[in-house]
């Protein structure tokens, strides 16, 4: 990691972690409400192809787009460890979740391609941070998970970090709660833009969620809207809180959540 980016990511991690220290440590049963099964059943037949459509709309581009896939769903997910950072397009994933959720020495994270919802493309276990270079046409989501994500079924719930790279090396990204919420995520473009470009949220909205708030239903959305800025995280489709990275580099930090 280059020194300037190392300092930026470290400072971001410390700052947003500090924001989270004022939140209570809720029980698992309370936290699970915004990540529960009714939304999952509702979306078993849904697709995840919205990332490119929403990001193209935010950029003012034509949404008539054909995705070039990196991975075939007949193939098993590809395990990766931290890769060398040569300064080109890529993604730093930082794990600030203290719970391992059934894994060992960290939390499991998955990169899944849009409309390929049954088998993830890449996966890893992160205790601290890793750098990964997806294929240059990757479009999809980065999510927290556990061993059940290997069962060949759709696992649509959770906080999605949506990412799409262009063949020219640029990239787009956003943090979405349209399919549920399993905890806070902050993403940052690492293209040297003055003042920085960030999306996502760092506060705990799972604690003290009202009764009936489950996995992205209307009660959950009303609760999230009270606490979160729709210009920073996808709460509805009519606002596009998307950022670009001119050099195709992002960092994504996951804070305490549930699986």
Automatic annotation (TrEMBL):
It comes from the Eukaryota. Keywords: Signal. The keyword Signal applies. Residues 35-46 have a biased composition (Basic and acidic residues). Residues 25-67 are annotated as: Disordered. Residues 1-18 form the signal peptide. This is Uncharacterized protein. It comes from Apiospora phragmitis. The lineage of its organism: Eukaryota, Fungi, Dikarya, Ascomycota, Pezizomycotina.
